[in-house]
Amino acid sequence: MKVMQKQKRIFLSSPHMSGNEQRYIQEAFDLNWIAPLGNNVDGLEKDIAEYNNIRGAAVVVSGTAAIHLALRLLNIGPEDTVFCSSLTFVASANPIFYQGATPVLIDSEMDTWNMSPVALERAFGEARENGKLPKAVILVNLYGQAAKMDELMSICDSYGVPIIEDAAESLGSTYKGKKSGTFGKYGVYSFNGNKIITTSGGGALVSDDEEALKKATFLATQARDKAVHYQHSEVGYNYRMSNIVAGIGRGQMEVLDERVAQKRAVFERYYEAFGNLDGIEFQPELEETMSNRWLTVLTIDPELTGVSRHEIIKRLNEDNIEARPVWKPMHLQPLFEDVKYYPHEEGNSVSDYLFEYGLCLPSGSNMSVEEQERVIEILKGLIKI
Ligand SMILES: *Cc1c(COP(=O)(O)O)cnc(C)c1O
């Protein structure tokens, strides 16, 4: 009996190699530079800094590790609070707990789906009244779209509080011509397997403060003091990226702009199919910004489209196609049960709305046009037009 052949799986976003990665890895083998130092690590740091037009980069084992290092560099400890976007992946906020500090969660606004300047201003106002300002603000550029940096930075500047810019999803994006991730005191990129480029796992901390990056590298290699014997005066981590992994990164950096163009083409095809439908709203691209469109995300109004987000995900999955809800906001997570949350306006939580109706569509830069047609046809069958 013939078994029904399952259609090839279509992922949200899967690794897409350039072909040159193995050349860099081979070089590391030829030099026997397999350790967590070496030419590929140096080369990748240079590539990242040059691409983003920033003074320096320190590559580490993950984006999460880079956020953790940024908090350490800002001396954040158990007495401190840190403001953080609520609508994000948990990795943005987990390092606040690593440092024993207290997170305060800030809602999104509808123009970018990122941190609401209105909510941030309210949170700062109350913090000042209570006599305790946060020691940092972690702000996220979701799905590749830059946040309202001018507004957010001007608020943070007026309180003298540094920004850690979580650009894990927005490598390659720009805001007024400047690269996403280069606005805060520190910026963070991720090279996890599903990101726009990947090293299988990895991350980078970037900054114009080269001394601070040296300190980050020191902390990331067990905080070894200068001495022949092993001597340590503060707590360190084993966070350094290996020279092999960095080789993958070098091959990937060569095609980053190509990947951005491919992701944007995926978005355009979805937009062409559904952009004019009542009840479907794509994540906006703010004026004077360019999103890498890491994932194509939209909201579905079940009343107007006749289908719920849940039904769409289920139906696509039956066809071996991965689709997911928008990130579940941190203020709705059990882990953050006791954490203070500032909605966009009293009684209007934008991230709750985006979570309830938001849908991430398969957006791989390596997804063929035919594969995307498969997704679009199923959606057209479900949506009442
Ligand atoms: C992926 C991601 C991270 C963390 O990156 P890892 O490299 O997986 O540790 C942080 N923040 C956001 C918003 C992410 O999407």
Give the strand order, joined by hyphens, for the main sheet: 1-9-8-5-4-2-3-14
- In N-to-C order, the SSE pattern is HHEHEHEHEHEEEEEHHHEEEHHEEHEH
By DSSP (H or I, 4+ residues per run), the number of helices equals 13
What is the assembly state of the chains in this entry? Answer: single chain
Strand % is: 5-15%
Share of residues in helices = 25-40%
CATH level 1 name of the largest domain: Alpha Beta
Mean pLDDT, to the nearest integer, reads 96
Task: Give the tally of β-strands.
Answer: 15
Total tally of structural domains: 2
List of distinct ligands in this structure: pyridoxal-5'-phosphate
CATH topology of the largest domain, what is it called? Aspartate Aminotransferase, domain 2
Structure overview:
The protein has 385 residues and is α/β, with parallel strands linked by helices. It folds into two domains: 235 residues, Type I PLP-dependent aspartate aminotransferase-like (Major domain) (Aspartate Aminotransferase, domain 2); 126 residues, Aspartate Aminotransferase, domain 1. Helices cover 37% and strands 15% of the residues. The protein has 13 helices and 15 strands. The strands form three sheets. An eight-stranded mixed beta sheet has the order 1-9-8-5-4-2-3-14, sandwiched between helices. Strands 10-12-15-13 form a four-stranded antiparallel beta sheet. Bound molecules: pyridoxal-5'-phosphate. Pyridoxal-5'-phosphate binds next to helix 3.
Element layout with pairings:
Elements: H1 21-30, H2 39-52, E1 56-60, H3 63-73, E2 81-85, H4 94-98, E3 102-106, H5 117-129, E4 136-140, H6 149-159, E5 163-166, E6 174-175, E7 178-179, E8 186-190, E9 203-207, H7 210-220, H8 243-253, H9 256-274, E10 280-282, E11 289-290, E12 296-300, H10 302-305, H11 309-318, E13 324-325, E14 340-342, H12 350-357, E15 358-361, H13 369-382
Parallel strand pairs: 2-3, 2-4, 3-14, 4-5, 5-8
Antiparallel strand pairs: 1-9, 6-7, 6-11, 8-9, 10-12, 12-15, 13-15
Helix pairs in contact: 1-8, 2-8, 3-7, 5-6, 9-13
Bound molecules: pyridoxal-5'-phosphate.
